[in-house]
Amino acid sequence: MQVSEAERKGVDAPVVAAPTGRADQTLAKKRRLLRIAREEFIRQGYRAVTMDAIAQAAGVSKRSLYLWHEDKAALFRACLAAGVDNFPLMQFNEAADPETDLRAFGLALLREFIRPSTVGIARLLLREANEFAEFGPLIRHSRDEHLVRPLARYLERAKIVDGHCDSQAKLLLAMILTPVHDYLLVGDALPDERECTIHVETAVRTFLCGQTRLSRAA
């Protein structure tokens, strides 16, 4: 499994200073725009944010903003996609120990989901999902494409599960992210680093023990 340095530390990736090339400068401006737009969505909520306000906060012209993102919905989708890029990658390695792999993945994932910016987006989605029907498909697509299916493929290749791989991947993800769900739904405190480590180790061990029992019963 491969994770970035920012993921290992559980912090937001730093904004890279713009290189000298014009294309690189434009790319840096686009990245900065998405970071600021994400902050504005979290601070104000999806409904209250305007494209004009985001352009002003990011220091870009409205012409550039609409050239890069045709409307607020497209900009919000881009912000979600930028956040998804921070998710850890679950990759199969025959030489690796599956339990160690799953623990590393689970810890990187939980660290990502307790970051302030990720929690802020999650709160926004929960708060405004009933008003904006497009949020549901966006969330499901991100979850399935970037978390469920890669993890399901890993579980199948590592011979941890035999059939129903997607549902088993969803189960493991739910177990790993329980502290985040508890924080968002009932107001429990988010775990610190030590608590994250203990929780992920327990979740992965419990999941694997359950799979072993199912295999023996079959």
Describe this structure in words.
- This protein is mainly α.
- 71% of the residues lie in helices and 0% in strands.
- It has two domains: 14-82, Arc Repressor Mutant, subunit A (Orthogonal Bundle); 87-217, Orthogonal Bundle (Tetracycline Repressor, domain 2).
- 23% of the residues are buried.
Helices and strands, with pairings:
Blueprint: H1 5-9, H2 22-44, H3 51-58, H4 62-68, H5 72-84, H6 98-113, H7 116-128, H8 135-157, H9 165-176, H10 178-186, H11 193-217
What labels describe this entry?
218 residues; Arc Repressor Mutant, subunit A; elongated; disordered N terminus; Transcriptional regulator, TetR family; HTH_TetR; Tet_transcr_reg_TetR-rel_C_sf; transcription; TetR_C_Proteobacteria
In a few lines, what is going on in this structure?
The chain has 218 residues and is mainly α. The chain is built from eleven helices and no strands. The N terminus is likely disordered.
| Counted beta strands | 0
Query: Main β-sheet, in a few words?
Result: none
Could you give the order of the helices and strands?
HHHHHHHHHHH
CATH topology of the largest domain: Tetracycline Repressor, domain 2
Shape: elongated
Radius of gyration based on Cα positions? 19 Å
User: Can you name the CATH architecture of the largest domain?
Assistant: Orthogonal Bundle
Distance between the termini: 30 Å
Q: What share of the residues lie within helices?
A: over 70%
Question: Would you identify the CATH H-level superfamily of the largest domain?
Answer: Tetracycline Repressor, domain 2
Mean pLDDT score, rounded? 88
How many separate domains? Answer: 2
- Our count of helices gives 11
User: What proportion of the residues form beta strands (DSSP E)?
Assistant: under 5%
Question: Unreliable stretches, pLDDT < 50, 5 or more residues?
Answer: 2-11, 13-19
Give the C-level CATH assignment of the largest domain. Answer: Mainly Alpha
